[in-house]
Structures are given as C-alpha cells and as structure tokens.
Amino acid sequence: MSRFYNENTKRLVPYVAGEQPQNMDLIKLNTNENPYRPSPLIEERIKNFDLYKLRLYPNGEGEVVKKAASKYYKIPQEKVFAGNGSDEILGFLFKAFFDGSTKIGFPDITYSFYPVYCSLFDIPYIQVPVKDDFSIDFGDYPEDLKGIIFANPNAPTGLFIEPSVIEELAKNRPDTLIVVDEAYVDFGGESCIPLISRYDNIIVVQTLSKSRSLAGQRVGLAFGCKELIDGLVKVKNSFNSYPLDAIAQVAAEAAFEDVEYFKITRDKIINTREKIRRKLLEAGIEVTDSKANFLFVRIPGISGPEAQLKLRENGVLVRNFNSGRISDWLRITIGTDEDMEKVADIIKKVMEESSI
After folding, report:
1. pLDDT in tens, 226-249
2. Which domain does 342 fall in, by range?
C-alpha cells in the first residue's frame, strides 16, 4: 500500500465488477448485459457520424440525450440529467445530497456499490435487513434518515416494489430523499418517473446499459425536480464538465427513438425469463419472482460457490456473491432463448449430480 494514500483510500473496499473473460466460448451470464445487439438505428447513426467533430468537446449537458428522454417520458427537459453511466450519476448524487453530518439507509441485500460510495464520501449509513423472502419493508427504516436508496427491481433478487408503495414512502417522509435506482425497470416493472412531478423528494436513476444494449457506451440518466437536477449539475461541473462523449450521445438518442426495436428485444428477454423460471421451478429449483433481466436461483443440495464453479466447468459463467444470506444463491443473466435452454438443462444436471 502506497505511503501516499490518505486514510480514506486506505479504508476503501472497492466495488468488484463481474468477470469479463477472454474465453468467449463460455455462455456469459454474469454481468446482466443484453444478449441482443443495439438498435439498427444506432448502428446507422454511428456509421454516419462525422468523425471531424471528435476534435471538439461534446455538449456538456448531453442535450440530445436529455431531449430524447424527456420526449420519451413526456416530462420537461429541465427534470432530466444525463451522465456517463448510472454508476457515475449515483456518485454525483451521493456527493450532492449527503455528507458526514447525515445518515442514509438501504437494504442489506441490494446493489453493492451503495456502501462503496458511502465509504468514498464518508457518509454514515445503515443497512436494513430485508425480510426472509427478500422483500423490502420501509417500515423498518428509522425516521432520522436523510436518504433511502434501493434498486427497483432490486439487485440481485429481482423483486419489484409497486410505485404506489414508493409514493406512500415519499409522502410520509417529505424530508427524506428517496432514490429509486431503476437499472432493470424495463423488464417488467413500472417506473417511478411520473412521481417526480408530485414529489420533490424523489429522484429516479436509469441506465441504457441493460434494456437498450448500450453497456459499452456508458449512458445513464436521472429524473427529478429542477432543484435536484441542478444539484447533480453543480457536482458534475465541479468534477467533469464533459462526461458523455459525442458518439455515446448519438447512440443514446437513437436508442430512445427506436421504440419498436426496444420493445421487441425487451419482450424476448421477458418471455425467455418467464419460460426458464417455470422450467427451473418445475425441476425443484428455488427461483425468485424476478422482474429484471436475470434470475436469482438456489440449487438444492449444493453451495453457491460450488454451484458457480460447476456451471463454469460446464461452460456457463454466472455470479455468486458468497455473502451472508445469499451465499447459496446465483444471479443468472437472461441470454438468448437457445442459450437459456442449455443453461436450464445444465443446472438440472448439476443438481442431480450433487444429490448422488
């Protein structure tokens, strides 16, 4: 460890991303990427992009992206923030609204970047245990919290909370900032974006990485009242005035415009998820009612780390967090129909072998 590290850096335990293997013979289902290529309109726009423009800085506010998102969601552009992936936006959000004098809360089972940001920015936090069925009960959260943040659908469980429940939370706690991380909402959930016009204490974060096949372009969005968006802009301009590159902005605009392609590929993933979920349940495998682009699975008679290893030996890469109550569970991204049929058969084979 370098002697030049400050005390905060010495203490940091960074987020660990899913493996990106060089061996592409594996069925890669460990990082929740979309199995389908981006919209043909995106390809067309990028091919026709004037490379001479790359000598110039991009628009610092991501205007074309904000305009496309505001049109898609039918909200004023001033309520939209565009950034370099939702993770960066979450970082701006933690810095803009929370500090060492406040305390925030989030579920003990959720996106593991939240405690990392708290450590990075010295923000006190509590992790509130989810119920035995992995559901979130906001009644368990103390009244003195400055913020409550959670993924919806949650990660890695895939469980979804209805917007009416979140609205009640915002209404009953007007001095608490409610951060709804909707990275997976397009796969069967319902967005809380309509709530931002009625509540100034709700901010919604989304990404184009999952449902719009743009993980490689790093485009994220936040939606909230003008005052909240202004706070994000203030932090962004104190850190990086040009977070979204020019080609990413072109790609994001096209992704919002090609609604038909988005619906086709999204529905394919949902249909595959439901079919494979039924198949696994019929085989006696435990699966949550996921509304995301992944399944959360426990194979009877075998530990999570061992199941992950067995699947890899059979050519399938999945995620196991090897942590507390979810140590025996696997998060399995939904791939193509063909790949998922193979995976379901391999999972059943692994279960049968473990019971011998």
Report:
1. 999 999 999 999 998 888 999 999
2. 7-37+260-354
pLDDT tens, 168-210?
A: 999 999 999 999 999 999 999 999 999 999 999 999 999 999 9
Q: How many CB atoms lie under 10 A from the CB of residue 190?
A: 15
What global pTM score does this model have? 0.94
- Under DSSP, the state recorded for 317 is E
Count of structural domains within the chain: 2
Q: Is 16 left (phi over 0), alpha (psi -120 to 50) or beta?
A: beta
Rounded CA gap, 300 and 329, in Å?
A: 10
Query: What is the mean pLDDT of the segment spanning 304-312?
Result: 95
108 and 182 assigned to the same domain: yes
DSSP states of 274-307 as a string? HHHHHHHHHTT-EE----SSEEEEE-TTS-HHHH
pLDDT score for 299: 95
Q: Are residues 280 and 237 in the same domain?
A: no
pLDDT at residue 23, rounded to an integer: 64
Are 48 and 141 members of one domain?
yes
Report percent pLDDT > 70 for the chain. Answer: 97
Rounded Cα–Cα distance for residues 336 and 197 (Å):
37
Average model confidence (pLDDT) for the chain?
94
Q: Who contacts 30 (Cβ-Cβ below 8 Å, separation ≥6)? A: 18, 19, 317, 318, 319, 331, 333
Whether residue 12 is contained in a domain is answered as yes
Which amino acid does the sequence have at 13? Answer: V
* Distance (Å, whole) CA 332 – CA 340: 10
Long-range (24+ apart) CB contacts under 8 A made by 12-20 are 12/116, 12/119, 12/120, 13/116, 13/119, 14/116, 15/112, 15/113, 15/116, 16/112, 18/319, 19/317
